[in-house]
């Protein structure tokens, strides 16, 4: 299915002032189609059509459908990493950092939905025929691992602080991310909600994710978290 | 893609002693393929091939790919409903029922993975061309709504009991199911884990799901829950 044999065009062929925008537009349009129809059933033609562009326009940026697919994942994971990494590195207690990370993660999910769907739901359901994609696949999996590791480390610290239940941090990241990432299955941006309503949903999801890990959510340190200030 | 125009064969044409098994086998094989390749990219031929059967064998049971897809969802949702409904109807306090329901739900997910994947991840990503599928679609969505409603009602009762945070029960079901259902994205049955290991994962996921809703997981009523007896 992947057309990796195709010669990749150099990225800077035309002086196109709207290039960054074009690339972002292609990624978003392709993400919508991949999520709606699946990888196999989505063609470069369909991506071009949904943008009112030519197939050549897409191939100007991407050598193959697989390239396009991986670039969606890379861009979406990088957006998460850039948003969350500074919060992980702060000086605050682990629990405070974890709550801030969970909220930022959920806000990005809900406001960047099609791209994030592709990124967080991963590659499992999409098959890549060629070995050519293996290098890209590893790079994306590495990004995702790094991202989960950020959380696992803060969770580990919070366990040592005695506020999170004493279970393997990697295992705890599963229901933790699940409480938030499941939104990529049930949430629909088409509902056109106000930013306040989206923010409130993000707080509920991140709140349940964090509370699910806690030994005692009624503890004073937890009650002070801004994440729970409105609904604890 | 759906071949609803095809004449549906009466279900009892042959006296086939292995019929119930055959139907279950077809459902499981088709579920694996739908989840791996997506609805559009999966053909009746591929389902037959993966079973070493003929296309006619599949059409003996199912008039179309859409019928087969809906029957997977129906069978999987019914399995959940049958497992969980008796627990919802018990006389125990709401929190105790909720914990038992969460654990049963997760155990079924993890042990019946391909079928449950199709059921819990829903139809959003799969397109149905024909209007013929609308009736079936509504029936499946109704089953799923009924199932979520079972949980929403027990959550509502637990809010009135003062043990679950006071937020709309329907909204709370989202991160609650997310903590558990996300396993259909990350969990792989191919790891071949022992029943004890699977049970332990189920307890961690259900535990985080329930704890995520609680006002105070350190409360005595919570500590008495068998769900938390091993790792609270």
TrEMBL record, chains A, B:
Does the record's keyword annotation contain Transcription?
yes
Q: Which Pfam families match?
A: TetR_C_24, TetR_N
Annotated region of DNA binding: 43-62
Residue span(s) of domain HTH tetR-type: 20-80
Region (Disordered): which ranges?
1-21
Where does this protein have compositionally biased stretches of type Basic residues? 1-12
Q: What is this protein called?
A: TetR family transcriptional regulator
- Organism (species): Ramlibacter alkalitolerans
């Amino acid at each position: 299915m992947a057309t990796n044999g195709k010669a990749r065009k150099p990225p800077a062929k035309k002086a196109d002032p709207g290039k960054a925008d074009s690339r972002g537009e292609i990624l978003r349009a392709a993400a919508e189609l991949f999520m709606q129809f699946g990888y196999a059933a989505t063609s470069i033609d369909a991506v071009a059509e949904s943008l009112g562009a030519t197939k050549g326009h897409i191939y100007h940026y991407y050598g193959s459908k697989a390239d396009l697919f991986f670039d969606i994942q890379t861009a979406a994971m990088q957006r998460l990493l850039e948003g969350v990494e500074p919060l992980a590195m702060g000086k605050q207690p682990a629990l405070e950092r974890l709550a801030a990370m969970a909220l930022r993660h959920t806000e990005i999910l809900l406001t960047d939905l099609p791209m994030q769907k592709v990124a967080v739901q991963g590659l499992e359901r999409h098959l890549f025929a060629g070995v050519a994609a293996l290098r890209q696949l590893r790079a994306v999996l590495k990004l995702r691992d790094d991202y989960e590791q950020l959380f696992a480390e803060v969770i580990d610290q919070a366990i040592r602080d005695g506020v999170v239940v004493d279970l393997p941090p990697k295992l705890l990241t599963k229901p933790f991310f699940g409480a938030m990432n499941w939104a990529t299955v049930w949430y629909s941006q088409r509902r056109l909600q106000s930013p306040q309503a989206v923010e409130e949903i993000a707080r509920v999801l991140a709140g349940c994710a964090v509370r699910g890990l806690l030994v005692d959510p009624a503890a004073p340190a937890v009650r002070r978290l801004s994440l729970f200030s409105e609904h604890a």
